[in-house]
Amino acid sequence: MTTREPSLFSRLVIRVGMVLLIGASILIFAAGYYAQTAANKTYDQLLRGAAMQIADGITQNDGKLIVNLPLSAFELLGFAERDRIFYRIVGPDGAIVSGYPDLNVDYDSIAARYDPQLETEQYRGVEVRTITVSRALADQAQGGWIYVILAQTTEARRALAAEITQGAILIVGIMILLGLGGTFLAVRYALKPVTRLAFALRQRNPEDLTPMEMPAPQELQPFLGAINHFMTRLDERVVRLQQFIADAAHQIRTPLTGLSAQVDMLDETSMIPENRERTQRIKIRTGELAQLTNQLLSHAMVIHRSGIIQLENVNLVTVARTAFHHAVPLTVDPDMVISFEADEALLPVRGDPVSLREAIANIISNALRHGAVSRLDVRVMRHDGRICVEVEDDGPGIPPEKWDQMSRRFNATSANAASASGLGFAIAAEVAVAHGGRIRFREKGDTGFTVILDLPSAREESA
Q1: Is the pLDDT at 414 greater than 60, yes or no?
Q2: What is the Cα–Cα distance from 16 to 319, expressed in whole angstroms?
Q3: Most exposed among 151, 217, 250, 380, judged by the fewest C-beta atoms under 10 Å?
Q4: Across residues 158-184, what is the average pLDDT?
Q5: How many whole angstroms from its chain centre is CA 200?
């Protein structure tokens, strides 16, 4: 059992969608990193400005440090309403001048430098962003450096970064949806040449095996070339097959006809009983060989025509009458009553007249050889909106339990027909299926056993 492969359309859409999702993931990660960096940069500027204002407000009077905390510094930090502020001012001697005494100070990293130092640390169980600003004292009484350490919690930063990231995710999500929609339409449009090529192949006449000439993208040219190459090879094989069937029909039928004629001309009156019995067996076997050969060639012709012949409107009455005259031999028993009748003069069906003629002729031949004793009736009629050809004989018929086996090749059609070729019903069944019909049987009753070729009418077929 072959596994079903996904369509080219789904493959392209899935792969492009995966590329879009990977790109979107990278963009979202980059947007989150940029948002956090932008939030840190914004609040670091405020933190730096506030720390420098506090440092500038520290003065010295008579060797004492005087801290004047400017309100503007805390107003700057007030933009982050969720955050808490911690500060610590350290004098030249390392003593705490003001602020929170437990705020960590790394004296090694804040050696006398004028540029502010920014770090992220943990203070009282929360994450804080700290800045350290150094100022030199110019007073002669007490020189050295003072340090202002200002810390701010990072809730506002994270909130700003999350807001920016959410906006970026929304934009990227919209772009992904637009990208997927555009990809769907683009792939559908790009695969239209494949659909046109498939439509052209479906609409092509089965008899037309000439190379296809139609505009196609460069990617489809190898595929189109392979189709044309295959059709050219197939055309050559079909021509050879047709020639073989024609040659075989001529080369086999001609000597068989001559052999049958020679056998029929044998004078049995002058033969001894043993030779007369042998001659009768030769005649029987020669007739069976001729029948088998004709049916084999007929079967090959039906198989060949079923796939390439375009159906047309035909009058089944005319076809059945031709098959009737073809199947009933001139040497039929004169005591047998044979009739042909049709309900209407015109009973149209959509089909191949040659294949239909062969199917009806085989049904009639089977009835004459293996069924009819003294009567054979062929009727063409309309029944329940369908066209039926009924072949009825007064023979023993076929048991209902064997009806399903009748369409198989080389299946005997009656109990006393051990030598029957068994191709007659197989040919008729294949023709019926090719025309949307079937072979049916009617059990032997007061009149006789009936084989029915059931076909849709031309109007029903068109509908």
Answers
A1: no
A2: 59
A3: 250
A4: 88
A5: 18
